[in-house]
Amino acid sequence: MRSFFTHAPFRLYLGLLLLAVCIVVGGILPWLAPGDPLVWYSAPRNQNPSGAYWLGTTSLGQDVFWLLTYALRNSIILGLIVAGLSTVIGVFLGLAAGYAGGWLDRVLSFFMDALLCIPTLPILILMAALFGGQLALPIVGLLLVVFNWPYPARQVRAVALTMREREFINVAWFSGESSSRILIRHIFPYIAGWSAANFINTVLVGISTESALAVIGLSSAQQATLGTMIYWAINYQALLGGKYVWIGSPVVAIVLLFIGLFLVSSGLSMQSAAKRMSV
Amino acid sequence: MHLLRFIAGRLVVYALVIVFALTVLFFVPRLGPTDPVEAMLAKVASQGAYMDPAQVDKLRQSLIDTFGLGGSLWEQYGAFVNRIVFSADFGPSLSMYPTPVMELIWNALPWTFGLLLSSTLIAWILGNFVGLLSGWRPNSNSSRVMEGIAICLYPIPYYILALVLSILFSYVWKIFPLTTTIRGAPWSWELVSSIVWNSFLPAMSIVIVVFGWWVISVKAQTSALKEEEFARYARLKGLSDGRILTAYILPNALLPQITFLALQIGLMFNGSLITEILFDYPGLGLLIYTAVLQGDFNLLMGTISLSVIAVATATMIIDLIYPLLDPRIRHR
């Protein structure tokens, strides 16, 4: 742990700091909210930022600050679930493909390549339009997992392929260790650092794609996410009314969250690359 | 001979990928809890248009054709693939009746294509230039600042940047137009300048993000490559810095970028869809959005199928040419 902090690049610290701010705002503050900020007319309409309403209120009478905490919470939860499932599925299938080889490898590789070629957003838009103009968050999450597991899978497969030829794997093999033990004890540590970086990156992609869908009004209207906040602000002419704080706060939150995620992800991959070099 | 076999193998994979994509598109409307045809009819009815039963039946038949819902599942699938691949016919648009969907798509396609192509090209040239220079002296202050800026720009989604740009340059400072209006006679200077003027902000939102990525990756490439043996040899030979950069390092730094492009095309396409919607830019994205808002399912199915196939094709083409460009890879 000590070596982690002394050798971690500066960008990792900065990213972790940004993420910590986002997690405090999205993870802890929603518990302190005075009421459900999504309810219309729970506050006076069209207020400018003041002591009572830190970021002002919306034209629908919602407190922007508390709405933002809820939106950040929902977006982060969605990103974490999508990234968690994609990484687990991707690492598992990637290891299976790379380690087993043969027809299993060929079939899995085909699905990875095919899914990587298909753009996600048009498919999501199609589904949203067909099913009543909106997609519930769990369905969006599920679809994002379907389209995002190939990224870790392809990388893990490539690592597993080279692993099979490595000396220490042979040693382990000939000293009678079982294949599952080789996978867990010897191959997994190799891909763990990279998988962590990829996990963070998938959080980013998940939140970004849901927000893209939400900005054009095709994600869930029952839940606040960063994208739906932007959608409502655009829809109620927040810009023409000069209410820049209403539309600006989710935009700033997304930018800070994404820069934080990217810094952590690239910091982690730099670190795992440096670790591999030193071995 | 090896090359031919390689290309043939790739084409087989490409055909399989397209079949897979079509299969996904085929099953999506069938996955949902609601019948899309009835949902569509209900939507038309709710818009207050009165239709006599004969008209409703006709519309239902046309929708059943669009979704290929007649006959057994196999017949439906065959008809669906046949319509998309071999006749490229998606029927008439329902909201702009009776203009064929393909005509609307053909009108929109040059806009999306032009936007993506020009902004990718600009970002690529700028990014390579700045990336090479900052990779040459990776520890200088200006190089660090450049990388810092790039790192802050790259993770921002296109549509967020589009939003920020339109807030700044269309609302706060009214420099660029808020929505796209193209005017001018064909082939006139006025038309060209109007297109450039209106495309500037949408293009910028893509250029800036992609530029960030090129700087990050080209810098990393360059600073690694300049330590390689061949670069050291060139330096010992007494070549100038400029020549080492352009003739020795640049070609090697270019190759991995092609792979990256293959992975990014889908993301860039996604991004341009939303950017177009935000700027009212008359491309494929706006067409998809119109289709969603109007409940025009013929148009929706057409635009989505075409964009999925286009992105898959572009990705496969890049995948195919990459090994042909890299002399170090041999086909055995």
Task: Give a quick summary of the entry.
Chain A has helices spanning 2-7, 10-32, 64-100, 102-117, 120-130, 137-148, 150-164, 167-174, 179-215, 226-235, 244-278.
Number of helices of chain B: 12
What class do helices, strands and sheet pairing of chain B give?
Answer: mainly alpha
Helix percent of chain A reads: over 70%
**Largest β sheet strand count, sense and barrel closure of chain B:** none
Q: Identify the CATH homologous superfamily of the domain at 104-295 in chain B.
A: MetI-like
Question: What is the helix/strand order of chain A?
Answer: HHHHHHHHHHH
Q: What is the CA–CA distance across the termini of chain B? A: 10 Å
Could you say which overall geometry of chain B the principal axes of the C-alpha atoms support? globular
Total strands of chain A: the figure is: 0
Give the CATH topology of the domain at 104-295 in chain B: MetI-like fold
Helix percentage range of chain B: over 70%
| Percent of residues in beta strands of chain A | under 5%
Tell me the structural class of chain A: mainly alpha
Mean pLDDT of chain B: 81
Order of helices and strands of chain B: HHHHHHHHHHHH
Family (chain B): Belongs to the binding-protein-dependent transport system permease family.
InterPro entries (chain B): MetI-like, MetI-like_sf
Domain ABC transmembrane type-1 (chain B): 109-322
Subcellular location (chain B): Cell membrane
